[in-house]
Amino acid sequence: MLTVHKMRFSIFLLLWGWILSTECRTHRQGKEIHEVYKKGSRPQRQRREAHGEGHKQGSPILKRSPDITKSPLTKSEQLLRIDDHDFSMRPGFGGPAIPVGVDVQVESLDSISEVDMDFTMTLYLRHYWKDERLSFPSTNNQSMTFDGRLVKKIWVPDMFFVHSKRSFIHDTTTDNVMLRVQPDGKVLYSLRVTVTAMCNMDFSRFPLDTQTCSLEIESYAYTEDDLMLYWKNGNDSLKTDERISLSQFLIQEFHTTTKLAFYSSTGWYNRLYINFTLRRHIFFFLLQTYFPATLMVMLSWVSFWIDRRAVPARVPLGITTVLTMSTIITGVNASMPRVSYIKAVDIYLWVSFVFVFLSVLEYAAVNYLTTVQERKERKLRDKPACACSLPQPRPMMVDGSYNDGDVNELGHFMSEDGDKQDRMMVQLALGSERGSARRKNQRYVSMRIDTHAIDKYSRIIFPGAYILFNLIYWSIFS
Questions:
Q1: CB 129: neighbour CB atoms within 10 A?
Q2: InterPro entries, alphabetically (predicted)?
Q3: Is the whole model's pTM more than 0.70, yes or no?
Q4: In which domain, by residue range, is 289 found?
């Protein structure tokens, strides 16, 4: 039993010695390989160095300046000495006004609203000024560019848009703000803004109108004694994208102006204006308003060629045109602000409505006169041919004591030696009654001719008057 334990112990010692020797040999070989790789042969190392130098000389793109952000002594705040100054005050506080140049690039003119009387514009607003507190030493005179995080720690002009309703700085994917500082302290501050501002529009010539709107930029706190605001390059300070277009307007002109604005409580301020002129496209309104109104007026004239007795044909035609004109007027006014003056389109539509309404009244007059005429003619036909005051002839039996010549036209029997004078008076009275009846018939005939003439004259008067109105209208407003 004891011999078995001794044998096991001796085997364990042998295995442990073999493992230690193997690990020592492996460690020695790895150390030798590492030394060989570290030292290397002189020719190979020279080839590697030569190859590396050639690569650096042939690829200048790979040359990089030292990363100054790794050094705590070259942080932007320390380089610009932000902590050494009070940036809550403007540059040169207490001295003359600091000049701030401005230029604008209009990216898009998004919409023009007649109902709200405003416009929406997206633009790049850039400010230029010099702040010696931000100057820094530089050997290559290169500027430094920062994002919006540094803007909150230094002084920037407090610009705002006068008469603006809504405005915001774009923040996708980060705040669209850029700050660039030159070594001598010159600063460029740029931001991308969308603003909705008021535009006083005059619709007296709508839709043949031309509108002029302006975007006004001004400092909120600093008067002209502290901040002198100006266009950096005059009228060339305003740039626009050539692809800007609107559905209803043609952009005729962009230009800049500068004025002084006075507030009774605070003083005078420099104000910059971005003015642009818009001319409305007329073709849309020709198709949607003017042509339908003209066609309705022409359709109302069709009733002049329809027989005056065809009441079911002429009355619905007139009512339909009147209702259609009312719908057109309502539709145009629904998309317009409720102004207290008359617009050019209102004049055209209401005059067209009057022409349509007059065509309905024309048929009402024709129908009424025709009815009166037919009623009188009917009474005339029912009336006896002779006068009512004279006795009617009646048949009588004639015997041999009377002659045929003794019977007069009134049916009275008279003797041959009767009074001839009385007979002549009766004949004259009968002739006068027949003459008056004939004159009445002629007057009724003339009335019938005048009733037909109303439609004939309307066929000429209505189109001629409407053509004259169009000539006057388009010569004034076009």
A1: 21
A2: GABAA/Glycine_rcpt, GABAAa_rho1_rcpt, GABAAa_rho_rcpt, Neur_chan_lig-bd, Neur_chan_lig-bd_sf, Neur_channel, Neuro-gated_channel_TM_sf, Neuro_actylchol_rec
A3: no
A4: 285-376+461-477
